[in-house]
Design brief:
Blueprint: H1 2-17, E1 39-41, E2 43-55, E3 63-76, E4 80-82, E5 88-90, E6 93-95, E7 98-107, E8 126-140, E9 144-158, E10 163-179, E11 186-197, H2 199-206, E12 225-240, E13 243-253, E14 269-283, E15 287-289
Antiparallel strand pairs: 1-15, 2-3, 2-14, 3-4, 4-5, 6-7, 7-8, 8-9, 9-10, 10-11, 11-12, 12-13, 13-14
């Protein structure tokens, strides 16, 4: 089971946690004014090596590192895109300034023994999220786009023997994407997004049931509401036609969150860093323009 978990989490999380960094184009409603209008192959496949440094859970005091060597597959269809800014995007509606997509999210599992505040409590399982995303283009130019993305996702957790319901997350996101932020031949995406979640989501991270309460960790009942605000920057550097490097940074601000009084809530600020390299080994001759 441990080997299955590592393989599945690796393949899925590399796509999700870096927001489709393995691709070198952004989904754009207007091809004429899109940030990147170069032709791309219909499909491509290869290898992706990514390393992550991230907190064990939102507002945790401890962090963890993951190294994930995994294969990747990108398919650029007219309505279905795999690995294009995420694992799968079903382009239900796409107009010059409006689109409806599938929103996905995920988080690594965590061992409670690695967190002093959670010692003796159940481990945190792998989390995945799925739901609709409605996007509105706010501004665009020849070199940049600004979008408002309204994301509503169902949250699940799994240890690969069962799946548990963990409520819902609503994440309105302001996204700005463009080219050549630090160096030429690069693209980037900056996002700012508050997160709001239901009771079950907050309880998974911050509730302390009676059987796990101690003198230092008293009983606590978590409620739904504001979870925090995330700010992220993903930058992609094209080294050559078949090699791309990405760097991602995410900052989490949790002051004023609904459950900051929980004994499991330890820090008002967290950060995550990702670094990886994508190597395309195979691709189709037929090109697509997005």
């Amino acid at each position: 089971m441990q080997r299955l978990s590592f393989t599945f989490i690796g393949i899925l999380l590399v796509f999700l946690l870096v927001s489709g960094v393995a691709t070198s184009t952004y989904a754009a409603g207007n091809a004429k004014n899109a940030v990147n209008t170069t032709e791309k192959p219909r499909w491509e496949a290869g290898a992706l090596l990514a390393a992550f440094h991230s907190p064990l859970y939102p507002a945790a005091a401890e962090t963890q590192e993951k190294l994930l060597p995994v294969p990747f597959l990108i398919y650029r269809g007219e309505r279905l895109r795999v690995g294009e800014d995420g694992v799968i995007k079903a382009m239900a509606v796409e107009k010059p300034r409006f689109k409806v997509d599938l929103s996905l999210g995920a988080a690594f599992n965590a061992n409670s023994d690695d967190a002093s505040a959670r010692k003796g409590m159940p481990d945190l399982d792998f989390i995945f999220e799925v739901g609709p995303e409605v996007s509105f283009m706010l501004a665009n130019s020849d070199s940049s786009e600004t979008w408002l993305n309204l994301q509503f996702r169902k949250v699940f957790s799994t240890d690969f023997s069962s799946i548990e319901d963990r409520g819902y997350i609503f994440q309105p996101e302001l996204a700005y994407q463009g080219n050549n932020l630090f160096i030429d031949n690069s693209s980037f995406k900056f996002t700012l997004s508050p997160l709001f979640a239901t009771n079950k989501t907050h309880q998974y991270f911050y509730q302390v049931d009676e059987q796990y309460s101690t003198t230092e960790r008293p009983f606590y009942h978590a409620n739904g509401g504001y979870l925090g605000t995330e700010m992220s920057l993903v930058n992609r550097f094209k080294v050559r036609d078949d090699v791309m490097i990405f760097v991602s940074t995410k900052l989490g601000f949790y002051q004023g969150a609904s459950n900051e009084d929980s004994p499991l809530f330890k820090k008002d600020f967290n950060y995550s860093i990702g670094l990886g390299i994508k190597w395309t080994l195979f691709q189709s001759n037929k090109a697509s323009l997005f």
